[in-house]
From TrEMBL:
PANTHER family: CARBOHYDRATE TRANSPORT ATP-BINDING PROTEIN MG119-RELATED (PTHR43790), GUANOSINE IMPORT ATP-BINDING PROTEIN NUPO (PTHR43790:SF4)
GO molecular function: ATP binding
Keyword Nucleotide-binding: yes
The species this protein was found in: Nostoc favosum CHAB5714
Domain ABC transporter: 3-236, 253-488
Protein name: ABC transporter ATP-binding protein
Top-level taxonomy: Bacteria, Bacillati, Cyanobacteriota, Cyanophyceae, Nostocales
Top-rank taxon: Bacteria
Keyword Nucleotide-binding: yes
SUPFAM superfamilies: P-loop containing nucleoside triphosphate hydrolases
Length: 491
């Protein structure tokens, strides 16, 4: 066995994040770690990569016990973490990013480094130009730069924490091919994902965690997505969306010839027009970066528009927008605030949370406890800082706040990104229930199947324009996929 963990445990105060975790992976194999949000996956990976020290337990590399006392020590031992939130400096080139922090010599031969990096990129089919500036690269390629970075540091164990969450389907396919090549070359890979089909397709073996403990380790060829989901959650899970036709009401919201610029001032949304009715879900399908973020921000009122109109047709007293932004850490949450405080960010001046300019702690606490129960936010209490929650539980805090108070319009951008299968299914049901009570919903996702399952109509966005608005009942995956890639419709 190349990597072996023996009875690893880790507590945060009284909370046990990892309890007696043991598993092992052979060289040349891909091993998945699965588990619900908060099950302890990231904590375990942070232990293997030297960021945290376990309270007890041992780690072995090639049967020799090792002490991974820091991230630097992990790198020296050949363990490389490919971060989900990329740690690259956008203004620097690929080569500069890769050698940053490890080349100390006075006369740096940049050309030679570039050649070495180009050769390494070619060996694994990464297709990276070493002189390219990172800020000009799409997300999928930036991720490969992260992979190249750990390979350059001679990692033999690669850890990838939800690497496909931010990728397009084509980018996922390329990543899967790259990981297969890396494994075939003898590397050991640990892969975390909430996408069960992907785990079965790519990985050789899988360990399932539930509430900090191992519940099963198995080979992927002997299991199914349904079985894995049930092992993770501990009960039966419905993996498909069950949607009934909704009763569509009056037009409550319309957008005319909307133009919005991106952060650099370049038009990102061009002449978009549509109407949305009460009780309707309009899905927006598109490859990431085609203007979805700017459109969502503009509708939610957090980004200026250059041209066009956004109109609410309902009475001005009742227009509330629930906005689930794509980047929850930057826009959706104040990480240093508690769960309870984050849940009232847009209502803290109102009754019952504030009375005579004084915050009402019991009401705030009570509100938080109810929301935590309803949205299954896993934490020891409502006073825990959001920065200490797992990624999926942070997302649940945003959802709980934005869906509270029966908004007329919900703008949901990638609302299930980072959520486990159980939580994903709960969010789908919840949004459908909001629709059925009469909310209008804009459902923006790069996951085509999810958009198709959730929507009544589907708009395809390409280079900032709606190239088609289709009826979800009759549209096909092929047709939408073609439009998303800039093709035109047949017939
Ligand atoms: N620094 C910390 N302080 C306190 N609690 C923490 C800390 N880091 C993690 N936890 C807790 O440990 C538990 C496990 O978190 P972890 O991030 O490992 O989960 P995860 O399985 O990676 O979840 P997700 O799928 O949502 O990313 C969570 O309940 C989290 O709140």
């Amino acid at each position: 066995m190349y990597l072996r963990l023996e009875k690893i445990s880790k507590c945060f105060n009284s909370f046990i994040a990892n309890e007696n975790i043991s598993f092992s992976v052979d060289a040349g194999k891909i091993h998945a770690i699965l588990g619900e949000n908060g099950a302890g996956k990231t904590t375990l990976m942070n232990i293997i990569s030297g960021l945290y020290q376990p309270d007890s337990g041992k780690i072995y590399l090639e049967d020799k016990p090792v002490k991974i006392t820091s991230p630097n020590k992990a790198i020296k031992l050949g363990i490389g973490m490919v971060y989900q939130h990329f740690m690259l400096v956008p203004q620097l080139t690929v080569t500069e990013n890769i050698i940053l922090g490890i080349e100390n010599s006075w006369c740096l031969n940049l050309r030679q480094k570039q050649q070495e990096i180009a050769a390494l990129s070619q060996a694994y089919g990464l297709g990276i130009h070493p002189a390219a500036k990172v800020e000009n690269l799409p997300v999928g390629i930036q991720q490969r730069v992260e992979i190249l970075k750990v390979l350059y540091r001679q990692a033999k164990v690669l850890i990838l924490d939800e690497p496909t969450a931010v990728l397009t389907p084509t980018e996922v396919e390329s990543l899967i091919n790259i990981l297969r090549k890396l494994a075939a070359a003898g590397n050991t890979i640990i892969f975390i994902s909430h996408k069960l089909e992907e785990v079965i397709n790519l990985c050789d073996t899988v360990t399932v965690l539930r509430r900090g403990k191992v519940v099963a380790t198995t080979t992927t060829k002997d299991t199914t997505p349904q079985q894995l989901a049930e092992l993770m959650v501990g009960r039966e899970v419905v993996l498909q969306v069950n949607k009934f036709a909704s009763v569509i009401g009056e037009v409550i919201f319309s957008v005319q010839n909307l133009q919005v610029a991106d952060d650099r001032g370049i038009p990102a949304v061009r002449n978009v027009s549509f109407q949305l009715r009460a009780g309707e879900i309009l899905g927006i399908a598109g490859v990431d970066g085609n203007g979805q973020r700017e459109l969502a921000d503009a509708i939610a009122g957090v980004r200026n528009i250059i041209n066009g109109k956004i109109d609410f047709n309902s009475s001005p007293t009742r227009q509330r927008i629930g906005y689930i932004p794509e980047d929850r850490q930057k826009m959706g949450l104040v990480l240093q605030f508690s769960i309870a405080q984050n849940l009232i960010l847009n209502a803290f001046k109102n009754l019952p949370f504030c009375r005579h300019f004084l915050l009402q702690s019991p009401a705030i606490k009570n509100h938080a406890q109810i929301a935590m129960q309803e949205f299954d936010i896993r934490a020891t209490g409502e006073d825990i800082k959001v920065s200490q929650l797992s990624g999926g539980n942070q997302q649940k805090v945003v959802l709980a706040r934005e869906l509270a108070g029966e908004p007329d319009l919900i703008v949901a951008m990638q609302p299930t990104r980072g959520l486990d299968v159980g939580a994903t299914s709960a969010v789908h049901s919840r949004l459908l229930a909001e629709r059925d009570r009469g909310a209008a919903i804009l459902y923006i996702s790069t996951e085509l199947e999810e958009v198709m399952a959730m929507s009544d109509r589907i708009a395809v966005i390409y280079r900032g324009e709606f190239v088609a608005i289709l009826d979800a009942q009759t549209a096909t995956i092929e047709e939408i996929g073609l439009l998303m890639a800039g093709g035109t419709r047949r017939g």
